[in-house]
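step 4 of 6: structure.
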Amino acid sequence: MTAPRGFRAAGGICGIKKSGKPDLALIVADTPCRVAAVFTTNRIPSEPVQLGRRHAASGRCQAIVCNSGCANASTGKRGYDNAVKMCKRVAKHVGCDPRHVIACSTGVIGHQLPMDKVLPGIDTLSAQLGDGARADAAAARAIMTTDLVPKATFRQVKIGGKTVTLGGVCKGSGMIAPNMATMLAFITTDADITLPLLRAALRDAVNADASFNRISVDTDTSPSDTVLLMASGLSDAKPIRKRGPEYARFCDALNEVCRDLAYQIISDGEGVAHVIRVRVERAKTNPDALRIARTVADSPLVKTAVHGGDPNWGRLTAAAGRAGASIRAEKLVVRIGNVTVYRNGRPTNVDLARLERLMKQDEVTITLQLNLGAGSCEFLGCDLGREYITINADYHT
Amino acid sequence: MTAPRGFRAAGGICGIKKSGKPDLALIVADTPCRVAAVFTTNRIPSEPVQLGRRHAASGRCQAIVCNSGCANASTGKRGYDNAVKMCKRVAKHVGCDPRHVIACSTGVIGHQLPMDKVLPGIDTLSAQLGDGARADAAAARAIMTTDLVPKATFRQVKIGGKTVTLGGVCKGSGMIAPNMATMLAFITTDADITLPLLRAALRDAVNADASFNRISVDTDTSPSDTVLLMASGLSDAKPIRKRGPEYARFCDALNEVCRDLAYQIISDGEGVAHVIRVRVERAKTNPDALRIARTVADSPLVKTAVHGGDPNWGRLTAAAGRAGASIRAEKLVVRIGNVTVYRNGRPTNVDLARLERLMKQDEVTITLQLNLGAGSCEFLGCDLGREYITINADYHT
């Protein structure tokens, strides 16, 4: 995240979490950056998201502050004012406009932030900003809730012979996190790219196959989901001012960053033993393909079958059939791994033992070929096991 | 089910289930009945559903045959032909048109029916038809898959001083049944009612508050779901030929039958310890109310919180906010039991210990008052526990 030119970061403990684990992160750019942002579609967004939407609308951002352990969601005016106070305190240290700071929070919903801990925490972290792997790791660690491992990635791409770097960190929503753990991702780049292109690139990257909007840990869309992309423009590479090969290369790298982070979220789902990769091919339309892929990946029947290594493929056709998308049984081909289980409107004579082995791999690939058009989608889900219940039912607020 | 005049039933073992439990049921009317039917919305419906739709379209039905242990779904032409054969064999014994028989199947998807067992089973049961509680119980037992208890109910209503009787049996879909256990309900009445009114009454009853289309055991819509309502017209009560007070009374009784059966399905969900009753009030529209109620009841976060008795109400606002319906945080009131937890856009000062007690009751009532219009909905869900995983992940086809 500090690999692109012009960014520093820090992460540490301010005392929100009773566990005493890191709970506050700061990402600061040397100069004002262009920023693109994607927020939750939840209609009761958290108070930081409400404020963040306003601040991101300016297209300018110089710092991100993020706490874990408390989502500051459904907290009303007091919660909103607390998010404003976080931005102001960061701005004082950075020397920028408070509207060029975005505050994010993740953790339990409905509780107020302990500002007597958060504000001094910001003061402390501001003095600890640095770059390099250690700073990145500290920030990645401080935004974790139920994540087991910190999540980060970076990519480099040549633009006109010069290197552009992208870096990112994120936190996952667990397999159903006890406190509605939220999806947060912060991506930095030193590309010099116009604001409209930066926004288009992020919008596309978030919706790319197997990227953030194409994964499902559970079906609950958090009120805090946020993806931020800051561009410092400090690389030597030539500016990206229009769509073309340079922009395409930048987008490819950004897509890879998003897909990489998304995969880290899925595979670190609480109690998750298997990633389910659902590929829908030749659907009537892309929205139809997404609908089917999401329904199959979210189906509790499919998730438990994968958890148990049970080659019960009838659950796949059943989920696909209820997705609300165009589908015709007689044209449908269903594969688990490379084994076709359903074709021409009826089961194939499949080797169940071989199928069972495929169902027990770390990653189980399910392909549904609809043969109705050119729509396609790749979606990532995960299995559903006892550990999920342990984490979510036994935990008490 | 045989309480209304003109119906007999039988249930027994034909040998589909390896467990040796009852797996074949027969319901026969003395005379051709009017029939109303509601089938699954799954776009890959089972072969018996495909045939049943055709047969029910005639509006006439004299017999229902139903096996458990094999859904005869995703089985192609051979499966369809097997359903036809079941109807023909029943028709031979009843002495009716095979198109006036409806065949239903429930159990594992993708396997062909063992017709060498089913057809002799029909012969045997045809000789055992009877009425009374014993016949009803035998039929109710024979359609069970993962249900723990047989499910039946009946109601009587006065129409112009004379008694009309309704009876019904159903089977539940478990908390996520290993073989996509399906929702089947067969309702009989001796009312003399026109076919259009019979169909309207069933359509409305299925969509009534807390009725079949307002419950969620899991989110998977089975390819076999079927509700059949047969009316023999053999009661002494005067015919129902138009909408009016008699029709309304009949509908009330039918709604009660459907709600009663639906409640039996929810409370017998696999491993279920708690029924979750979600009431949405003053939504902008009825569809909005349904969307919110269903999303809250289906939320894995809400289901695990109820399982663990955790008063984590932030999961309720989060689920309501992602339902895709109109909602405004500052107008929303959320109650668990009779305790208000959220109002005026912020948490109330709630007694968490009291809330925890409410969350541990057999039935947990959640009320979301939106204050945006006149839409409302009552929806039933259930908790999500370890037993659910045990039944569905450890089971192998």
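step 5 of 6: annotate
 - Residues 7-267 of chain A form a domain with the L-amino peptidase D-ALA esterase/amidase fold (CATH 3.60.70.12).
 - Chain A touches chain B through 74 residues (CB under 8 Å).
step 6 of 6: archive
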